[in-house]
Amino acid sequence: MNIVDIRAQMEEELTWRQNEIRFLRNQLSYISADQDKKRYRKSLVVMLYAHFEGFCKTVLLIYVDAINHLRIKRNEANPYIKTASLADVFKAYANLDKKCALFKHALPQDEKLHLFSRQVDFVNMIDALWQETAEIPESVIDTESNLKPVVLRKILFRLGFPYDCFAGYEGKINFLLEKRNSIAHGSGKEGLEEKEYSEVETASFAVMEKILKLVIEALENKTYLSVV
């Protein structure tokens, strides 16, 4: 893994998005009427949210891809990476329709027995699972259609990052999401004041920069590995 190249890739991901928003914001100088400026800021909100979600998802997927390319074994990974890589195993384990092969005809409705059977299967697999490669599925980065602060916290938690690192900006990110959704659904007909938009843009890029820093530090310090 070339951390320098990965860092450059992620920084470029942030830079081009910042430049595009800056370019679009600068077009306000060509609009004279205050009411028209307010309406124009509505389009800025839509673009800003698109870049916010797009950046967070892209950078976190780059992190997942970097770890997957390392081909580390589960017994070498930290508990969060271990768990994330076992997503399919846990999904199968939670399948309540799976019956115990030995008793599926004699005791088809015995849920406790079938649960115990799955537990036995899991215990029998444990040693082998730890020796397998910790392959994290992309589904771990699930933005759930709207990257609300609570959704971003869940993603960060699954990857072992401090999930409350942007707590001071959550109010502004929620405001961004609410405005974007109201515009998309046709209820947000009012424009935005300059101060409103400026605060939301500042908060959005601050969170994006924090996510970038978290990922870079995790790769540089190898915090995805278990502590020996």
Automatic annotation (TrEMBL):
Superkingdom: Bacteria
UniProt keyword terms in alphabetical order: Membrane, Transmembrane, Transmembrane helix
Positions of the MAE-28990/MAE-18760-like HEPN domain: 7-224
Q: Which residue ranges does UniProt annotate as crossing the membrane?
A: 44-64
What InterPro entries does the annotation carry?
HEPN_MAE_28990 (IPR040788)
Pfam families attached to this UniProt entry:
HEPN_MAE_28990
Its name, as the record gives it, is MAE-28990/MAE-18760-like HEPN domain-containing protein
